[in-house]
């Protein structure tokens, strides 16, 4: 603008608004163009972010904030940046992006919780207590977490126990279970296994059952 770089805009924004050389633009029109262009860019960047794995709404919200800061730093002249009401434009960009992502079902905390629980049980076993803590840290509402953790077909006591048993057997194998050990060494192994399972959020009852079974076999 006026012979100097002002801001970056997507091709679709340029074409849609038929921008041309020497076209006069008011400060309001410039801000509207910037808003529309960044909405498009943020949406596409967020789709790439979500392609690696599902994310909670809070994770996406935090990602959008980081991307806006990056766009501001890389695609906006400092002189123009000083004229923009960031207290208004940042929430607008985030809200518009979120609305579109939710509408197209790319962001859904219920689906995220379902995915998270299944992934944890399959690859990095956790008990309900640890799962609840992890999901709260991801910003998921307690009501959604409680509702889905109560589903028996998703994570019943038997499913949780099976996940804990797989993990316990893997840990126990590292102790060389076929090696002769004295009473003290067996006690130490039992204690370490107990601590590992409890740290993964498994309940007292589940941990006791599994640890006792493995010690008896030893």
Helix coverage percent? over 70%
Quantity of strands, as a count: 0
Radius of gyration: 26 Å
Low-confidence stretches: none
N/C terminus separation: 78 Å
Main sheet, how many strands, which sense, barrel? Answer: none
Describe the structure.
This protein has 218 residues and is mainly alpha-helical. It folds into two domains: 11-103, no CATH class; 109-217, no CATH class. Helix content is 72%, strand content 0%. It is built from twelve helices and no strands. Helix 7 runs antiparallel to helix 8 and helix 11 (183-199) runs antiparallel to helix 12. The mean pLDDT is 89.
Key structural traits:
218 residues, mainly alpha, 2 domains, 12 helices, elongated
Quick synopsis:
By secondary structure, the chain is an all-alpha fold.
Topology summary:
Layout lengths: L10 H6 L10 H26 L4 H18 L3 H4 L4 H18 L5 H15 L4 H10 L4 H8 L2 H4 L1 H17 L9 H17 L4 H14 L1
């Amino acid at each position: 603008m006026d012979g100097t770089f002002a801001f970056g805009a997507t091709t679709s924004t340029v074409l849609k608004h038929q921008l041309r050389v020497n076209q006069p633009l008011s400060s309001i029109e410039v801000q509207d163009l910037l808003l529309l262009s960044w909405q498009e860019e943020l949406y596409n960047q967020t789709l790439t972010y979500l392609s690696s794995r599902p994310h909670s709404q809070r994770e996406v919200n935090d990602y959008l904030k980081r991307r806006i800061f990056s766009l501001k730093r890389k695609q906006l002249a400092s002189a123009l940046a000083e004229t923009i009401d960031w207290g208004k434009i940042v929430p607008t960009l985030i809200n518009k992006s979120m609305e579109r992502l939710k509408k197209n079902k790319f962001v859904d905390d219920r689906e995220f919780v379902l995915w998270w629980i299944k992934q944890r049980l399959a690859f990095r076993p956790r008990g309900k207590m640890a799962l609840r803590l992890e999901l709260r840290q991801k910003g998921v509402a307690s009501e959604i977490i409680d509702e889905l953790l109560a589903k028996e077909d998703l994570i019943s006591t038997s499913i949780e126990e099976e996940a804990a048993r797989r993990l316990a057997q893997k840990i126990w194998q590292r102790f060389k279970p076929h090696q002769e050990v004295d009473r003290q060494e067996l006690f130490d192994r039992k204690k370490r296994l107990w601590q590992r399972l409890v740290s993964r959020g498994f309940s007292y009852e589940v941990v006791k059952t599994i640890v006792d079974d493995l010690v008896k076999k030893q």
